[in-house]
Amino acid sequence: MSAEATSPGAPIRRRGRPRIDLRRLGRAALFGPASRDRAPDAIAHVVEAHRAHHPEADLSVLRRAYVLAESSHRGQMRKSGEPYITHPLAVTLILAELGAETTTLTASLLHDTVEDTEVTLDQVREEFGEEVCYLVDGVTKLEKVDYGAAAEPETFRKMLVATGDDVRVMSIKLADRLHNMRTLGVMRPEKQARIAKVTRDVLIPLAERLGVQALKTELEDLVFAILHPEEYARTDALITEAADGPDPLGAMAGNVASVLREAGISAEVMVRPRHFVSVHRVRIKRGELRGSDFGRVLVLVGEDADCYAVLGELHTCFTPVISEFKDFIAAPKFNLYQSLHTAVVGPDGEVAEVLIRTHRMHKVAEAGVVALGNPYAPDSAAQTVEPADGERADPTRPGWLSRLLQWQQSAPDPDTFWTTLRADLAQDREITVFRTDGGMLGLPAGASCVDAAYAQHGDAAHACIGARVNGRLATLSTVLKDGDTVQPLLAEDAASGPSPDWLDHARTPAARIAITGWLDAHPQAAEAGQPGLPADPDPQPVPPSVPRTARARTATAVAERPDAAVRLAGCCTPVPPDEVTGFPVRGGASVTVHRLECPAVARMEAVGRTPVAVSWGDEQACRVTLVAESFGRPRLLADLTEAIAGADAAVISATVEPPSEQRVRHTYTLRLPDAAGLPALMRAMREVPGVYDVSRAQHPAGAL
Q: How many CA atoms lie within 13 A of 174 on its CB side?
């Protein structure tokens, strides 16, 4: 990816991962390819790593890819002074060590040829086939000369769309960024910081979601060293100090291995050191680090059932810390991760965290989707299937990626896409909720009923007035939990729209983009919409074809403000003959009318907003929000609806809050043909058995 390099001595090394010898590769690259009957010396590292995972792989295509890459990059140098070919070689070695299959390695060798040399995509396609061409195209940057400042976000959009069809595109990009981060030191500090921030905000979350922990953890450490050098140095000193002291984890691993041998369980037991960022997080969480906090005990077994057998032995022979137990085998993480997590107290009182998994699980935990090999091969177990509910079950196209690809289509503006992408990737935990029809929705943790409504109904959710969560009525702001059953309730009035307050509770980009788009298209509703209820379905701004006068009108109110549309506030729904005042909004283009006793009036006066005189016009039709307080009983809702219908009032929307201490709160937004009928309507509602109070709505603006 056209990244500049630095000196080979990067500040962080991943233990157990040999660093590629750039000088040796540079010499081999300069000497050119080897004879035709064997692989070039320069890719010997790659061949060795690839054979370890794929002993029967055909290496001829790798040789041809190297020859093309070396000849096309010949003469190009990195900022470190090394031949440029060392970069694609290093990227390919990273992927080979993770177990990537031959097609991915071929594309990684060629990933910068189209971007930085005279090689074209047509040449790649002709020489190596459509798959390799697609991968190379997917990771090729867009030109700044064509896209300007939008080049970076649009490049990431292009890569993500390509990843939706072939996840190997992002695998190559992650390995490319890892090598660039390893060799970032020769750049200016400000450029290092910029690249590190993008890596932190976009690439690391993507590595986490794709389950490629081996790349994610090293990227985290590299970013940590650049953006927080003092904290990194402190953590480094703590790790060095611990390495020179006692080894409680080594003793614990020996005890665990002994227990499992006596139980007849074949297992591999080792100590897995924490990486720098993990140690830093533990220190922040606990304040004082224990000797066992610098790593975890890892137990690898052959079969899934053996994992639970190991767990039983550990909890029998050691004192378990129950609060630390997590079963990610029965309930895998959304990034394919599976393992049992527990913590036990050793004979010396040290608490050690233990990870239990099979060798297959460990490979997936380290390499994520890369460990799937070629998931698109005809005989691959991971090939795409279409389940009954229509969502792809392909593990390389998880729900979060499908949702990301969907909302990005509604964010054509590069800045909106870039900002939304970072916010979306920052939500690193996912929940599953169920629809009443038996389907499932995958949502980020913290999602509300608003998010569920848009995930299920799309733009039709604009008319949502509430929801049922686990069979009980709930407000749209209700935060959903894993396993909840949710049923969004839509108003019959399809012209209804969302309130601006919905944005306070929307967590998914799809919901936020849809709500923002509707509010931008209906600017009057953005100010007048009733919090928590649909906005006015019948807005009547001054038509553009009608000449404006000095007195702009709505159905019932007249404001002394030239060239201004007048709207009734949703927070207090004034009606004649209420005493009212108005406040200009959006630069004076509109005037919002409030009752004088509305709490919003005092707030706006306190911040210096200038009121506008408002009077009632001749029209008598009005809209009003009423709140009925009652004791719960059968048929209460039907009787209240009948009383409302008897007053010739039309129900725009209604919500019923869950009962509390046998009391129920009903909120109705109504349209009356004549405001003079409001007192009679309120009396009729109060006379309904069980209702002990009916009042005009007086909720603070912005509350849901």
A: 36
Query: Does this model's pTM top 0.70?
Result: no
| Alpha carbon distances (Å) from 404 to 179, 210, 417, 420, 424 | 26, 14, 10, 10, 8
666 within 8 A of 640, measured Cβ to Cβ: yes
For residues 16 and 285, give the distance between their C-alpha atoms in angstroms, rounded to a whole number: 28
Q: What's residue 619's pLDDT?
A: 61
For β-strands 319-320 and 430-435, DSSP reports them as unpaired
- For residues 84 and 78, the answer to whether their CB atoms sit within 8 Å is yes
Which range in 403-407, 500-504, 650-654 is most confidently predicted, on average pLDDT?
A: 500-504
Q: Where are the alpha helices (DSSP H) in 529-688?
A: 599-606, 636-646, 678-686
Average pLDDT over residues 554-571: 69
Strand partners of residue 299: 269, 356
In the block, which residue shows the tokens 């379905």? 537
SS3 at position 108: helix
The sign one gets for the Cα dihedral 610, 616, 621, 625 is: positive
Amino acid at 214: A
Pairing of strands 622-631, 650-656: unpaired
Q: Among 115, 493, 619, 629, which one carries the catalytic annotation?
A: 115
Residue pLDDT, tens place only, 343-379: 999 888 889 999 999 999 999 899 888 877 766 665 5
Query: Which pLDDT score is estimated for 166?
Result: 87
Contact 675, 575 (CB under 8 A): yes
For residues 173 and 161, is the Cβ–Cβ distance under 8 A? Answer: no
pLDDT band at residue 647 using 50, 70 and 90 as cut-offs? confident
pLDDT band at 389 (very low <50, low <70, confident <90, very high): very low
Between CA 675 and CA 270 the distance in angstroms is 78
Given the residues 4, 21, 41, 116, the one annotated as active site? 116
Question: Helix, strand, or coil here: 704?
Answer: coil
- CA–CA separation, 423 and 418 (whole Å): 9
Q: Where are the alpha helices (DSSP H) in 211-288?
A: 213-227, 229-243, 248-262, 276-286
More confident residue, 407 or 476: 476
Does residue 348 carry a catalytic annotation? no
What's the CA dihedral at 146, 148, 154, 156 to 10 degrees? Answer: 110
Dist CA 34 CA 392 (whole Å): 45
Catalytic: 430?
Answer: no
pLDDT for residue 40:
62
